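Work Package 4 report. The design task specified in the project plan requires that, given a folded chain encoded as structure tokens, an amino acid be chosen for each position. We show below one input record used in the internal validation round.
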């Protein structure tokens, strides 16, 4: 690889990089596309003794980019991945990032955690009952919860794949640990929102309007505080834009 400008896609909780599979054909025509399953998700390792901190997830992303020889990239992130993106941008602002980020796209993530509307499942996983709830979760319950946060139907095989990858290597049992990222969104709010408010690269806020978790107010706030950011609404789309309307998301990216 010549180290040219790639496109890095960061996924959310509790799924994996597979979320982007329906837009890969159009994106890969124009540039190299890089996808990473964060530790605890997808096909990556899911160890018991690991912090699953967003800071360590950012470290893993940088290790992957170094291994692939990528020095310059555009960055698109969804859900939990938007906070990993914020950590990368905070390091960039401090001169600590070993790669160049040339553009940014944020999709339906609760960066402004104070505005988010957490689902009952998220609240349970964060409670002392989290380990028990994760053990007792079933595929029908998981699929029903997913469909509640969608604005448009998603192919059933995509939802089934999410469940299968969640169970891979006992990932379902790690959910009470991996959901710790929500507490970090509160803890590092000033670090991450501060970096966004001083950002100096082209930024697109690409947002499904019907998301009951990462609500419209978050997108509007991000658009207002990121200098020069462009806000594009995806009408009728819920929490998973890249699966609900892959054509619109692929064209926007």
């Amino acid at each position: 690889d010549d180290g040219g400008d790639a496109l890095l896609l960061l996924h959310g909780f509790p799924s994996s990089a597979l979320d982007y599979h329906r837009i890969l054909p159009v994106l890969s025509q124009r540039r190299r596309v890089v996808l990473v399953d964060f530790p605890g998700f997808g096909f990556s390792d899911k160890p018991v003794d690991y912090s699953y901190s967003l800071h360590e997830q950012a470290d893993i992303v940088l290790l992957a980019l170094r291994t692939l020889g990528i020095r310059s990239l555009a960055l698109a992130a969804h859900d939990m991945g938007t906070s990993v993106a914020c950590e990368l941008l905070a390091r960039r602002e401090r001169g600590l990032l070993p790669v160049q980020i040339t553009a940014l796209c944020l999709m339906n993530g609760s960066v402004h955690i104070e505005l988010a509307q957490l689902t009952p499942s998220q609240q349970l996983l964060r409670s002392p009952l989290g380990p028990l709830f994760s053990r007792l979760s079933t595929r029908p319950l998981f699929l029903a919860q997913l469909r509640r946060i969608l604005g448009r139907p998603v192919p059933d095989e995509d939802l089934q794949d999410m469940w299968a990858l969640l169970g891979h290597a006992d990932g379902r049992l790690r959910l009470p640990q991996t959901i710790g990222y929500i507490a970090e969104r509160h803890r590092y709010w000033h670090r991450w929102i501060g970096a966004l408010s001083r950002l100096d690269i082209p930024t697109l806020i690409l947002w499904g309007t019907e998301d009951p978790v990462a609500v419209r107010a978050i997108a509007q706030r991000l658009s207002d505080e990121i200098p020069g950011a462009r806000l594009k609404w995806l009408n009728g789309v819920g929490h998973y834009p890249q699966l609900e309307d892959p054509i619109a998301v692929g064209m926007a990216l």
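The mean pLDDT is 96. Validation will be extended to a larger panel in the next phase.
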